[in-house]
Structures are given as structure tokens and as C-alpha cells.
Design a protein that fits this description.
3-stranded antiparallel beta sheet; globular; alpha/beta; TIM Barrel; 346 residues; binds flavin mononucleotide; 8-stranded parallel beta barrel
């Protein structure tokens, strides 16, 4: 951990995040450039990723850090969750560190500046890398599905892929959308819009880690039926694993970081086993090292995302992970990361 990252840990978590946003925006030239190696290059659905490590949704909610995040080493950036209208989110405090567990509990509730600002930022970014937009409904919306469709229409043209977020635990009733009757309507309608587009963008569905395999099978059926391109596994968890030691474990919200790694990996493992391997899987949850990234890839993820560990480790963690990942690939005798996808889960 650097001196600066240590200082940020002294601030309340949401203040530290806001300072980090400003530092990343205006100070990325001091952080330096990302590590590159041909063995990390991967091409998925015609999109070129310089490496498989992305920043997970929620870090850059308003798409204002795309260029610095790509510059400091991420292979892709997922912005959002963005909603049609700006919204404040839940009352503060709403982000809690669980230092002893390398974890966070958040109940932000889709605080963001809304679709108009998001699109403006997307348009003005140079985007020298892959950019995804993660979309969700406004909390007080009368019709959640309409919100997704509205925002999808406005945003898809300006980014490389779109993620439908039905798995945040912090917007009341949002996770209900993962029920068959609602999810079917949402996926049918959004795929119809996509199918009418000239330049079709991949659609990803982001799911939670708190469900049964039967439930995930139902999701897979719908994903196949409506040609959704991939699944992001997983969002934060409402569970509280027994291993948690920090007193903040009692806070309400979604748990992220090391304690959800096994939960997320279990979902990823199941999805890979059940799919025809045409589905793109993005593994996220508890990544803090190259080994964590590599394990998710070997379980079947083509791409991996990180959030919580970055807040503890600082931006230098990105290059460290990439450098170590190259070593792991080479030690296993692979020339490229794509050769490792799913090898531990056949
Ligand atoms: C403070 C915070 C805010 C988040 N906001 C979002 C969000 O807006 N949309 C979303 O899909 N996921 C959001 N997430 C979930 C992350 O994208 C990720 O799925 C989860 O944290 C697991 O990864 P991690 O263990 O590496 O943090 C958020 C996570 C954190 C910690």
C-alpha cells in the first residue's frame, strides 16, 4: 500500500472515493502507464482487450474517468450504474469498510448524475480501450423495465457493451427483476431493440451471488433464448459469511471483497459448466491478486473485474496483478491467457 492510499484510508470511505475520483481525473499522469504484454491480449466478440482485467461497475458511476483508468492499466472499464434521471441515492453514511476482512459493505443506491451527463462524458472520452455501460432504473420509477429500455436506446451507440444490472441489493425490489416473469419481459424487450440496431453491441447481464443453482439455470435459459451475450458473476452479496470479523459486518447493504470470493466463484463455476461456452463470462468478486484473477479464468471467465481490493491496495495493484499474471500463464506453459479459460472446470 502506498503512502497516499494509506492516507485515503483515514478518510470516511465515501469521502476517500470522491478524493480518489479527483486524483484519478487530474493526477493520472503521476501514476504512470499500464503494463502491456502480448500474452494478456484477448479478443471477444470482435472487441480487443489489451488485458482481461477491468474495473467493476460502481467505481466510475458517471463515466468521468474512462481515459485515466484505461491509461493506468485496465483492459476495460465498466461505467455506471447509470439511471435515466440523476439521483442522490440512500442517506449517508452508506459505505462501510470492513478492514479486518478486506471487505466493504455499501448501500449507495445508484447515486449518479443521470443519463445525459453520462452520455456527454462517454462522447468526450478518447476511449483507447474497451468501455462498457452498466444501466439501472431510477428508484422512484413507475416501471423499471421502461427505464432500462429508455437508457439502453440512448447509451448503446456510445460504448462497446451494455450491462443490465438486476442485482444491486440497494434499490428496493430490483432483485425481483431476476424472477422469471420479469426477467423474461426485460430480456425480450431489450433484445428486440438490439436486434433492430445496425451496429449491435454485446449485452451482459449482471447477477447476484445469493441464489440457487436452479435459479441460475432459469437465468441461463432466458439468456440463451434472447441471445444475451454474457453474464457478469457477481454483484455484492446480502449474505454475511461466518468468517467476517469486523464489527461493521452488521451494516445493511451489499458485501464485497475477499469474503465473497468463494460465493462468486461458485456461481461462475456453475455457469461455465452449464453453458455451451459461447456465453461470455466475466468473473468478479473478491479479486485481490493475480492468482485470484487466474483462478476465475481457469474456472471459465474470459474477463475479470475488481473493485474492493483496489480501495485497499491502491492503483499500483493493477500493474502488479498484470505482471504476476503473465508469470502464472508462462509457468503453466500457455502462450496466451485465452488458452487458460475454463481449464480447471471441464
Ligand atoms: C462502493 C461500491 C459501489 C458499487 N456500485 C455498483 C454499481 O453501481 N453497479 C454495479 O453493478 N455494481 C456495483 N458494485 C459491485 C461491484 O461492481 C462488484 O460486482 C462487487 O463489488 C464485487 O467485486 P469486488 O469484490 O472486487 O469489489 C459496487 C461495489 C462497491 C464496493
Amino acid at each position: 500500500m502506498s503512502f497516499l492510499t494509506g492516507l485515503l484510508q483515514l478518510l470516511p470511505p465515501e469521502t476517500a472515493h470522491n478524493v480518489t475520483i479527483q486524483l484519478t481525473k487530474y493526477g493520472s499522469s503521476f501514476i504512470g502507464s499500464g503494463f502491456h504484454d502480448q500474452s494478456l491480449y484477448t479478443n471477444i466478440k470482435g472487441l480487443s482487450f489489451s488485458n482481461p482485467l477491468g474495473i467493476a461497475a460502481g467505481f466510475d458511476k458517471n463515466a468521468e474517468l474512462i481515459d485515466p483508468l484505461l491509461k493506468i492499466g485496465f483492459g476495460f472499464v465498466e461505467c455506471g450504474t447509470v439511471t435515466p434521471m440523476p439521483q442522490f441515492g440512500n442517506t449517508k453514511p452508506r459505505v462501510f469498510r470492513l478492514k479486518k476482512d478486506n471487505a466493504i459493505i455499501n448501500r449507495l443506491g445508484f447515486n449518479n448524475k443521470g443519463e445525459k451527463r453520462f452520455v456527454k462524458n462517454l462522447m468526450s472520452a478518447k476511449k483507447k480501450g474497451i468501455v462498457g455501460s452498466n444501466i439501472g432504473p431510477n428508484k422512484d420509477s413507475k416501471n423499471f423495465v421502461d427505464d432500462y429500455l429508455k437508457i439502453y436506446r440512448k447509451i448503446s451507440v456510445y460504448c462497446d457493451y451494455v450491462t443490465i444490472n438486476v442485482s444491486s441489493p440497494n434499490t428496493e425490489a430490483l432483485r425481483e427483476l431476476q424472477r422469471k416473469e420479469y426477467l423474461e419481459v426485460l430480456l425480450r424487450e431489450i433484445s428486440q431493440i438490439r436486434d433492430e440496431e445496425k451496429n449491435k453491441k454485446p449485452i451482459m447481464l449482471k447477477i447476484d451471488p445469493d441464489n440457487t443453482n436452479d435459479h441460475y439455470s432459469m437465468i441461463l435459459n432466458l439468456v440463451n433464448k434472447y441471445n444475451i451475450d454474457g453474464i457478469i458473476a457477481t454483484n455484492t452479496s446480502v449474505s454475511r459469511p461466518e468468517i467476517l470479523r469486523d464489527l461493521n459486518k452488521k451494516r445493511k447493504g451489499g458485501l464485497s471483497g475477499t469474503p465473497i470470493k468463494d460465493l462468486s466463484d461458485k456461481v461462475l463455476k456453475f455457469l461455465y459448466q452449464e453453458t455451451n461456452q459461447e456465453l461470455i463470462l466475466i468473473g468478479v468478486g473478491g479479486v485481490g491478486s493475480a492468482l485470484d484473477v487466474y483462478n476465475k479464468i481457469k474456472l471459465g471467465a474470459s474477463l475479470v473485474q475488481i473493485y474492493t481490493s483496489l480501495t485497499y491496495g491502491g492503483p499500483h495493484l493493477i500493474n502488479q496483478i498484470l505482471i504476476d499474471l503473465v508469470k502464472l500463464i508462462k509457468d503453466d506453459g500457455f502462450a496466451n491467457i485465452t488458452e487458460a479459460v475454463g481449464v480447471n472446470n471441464k
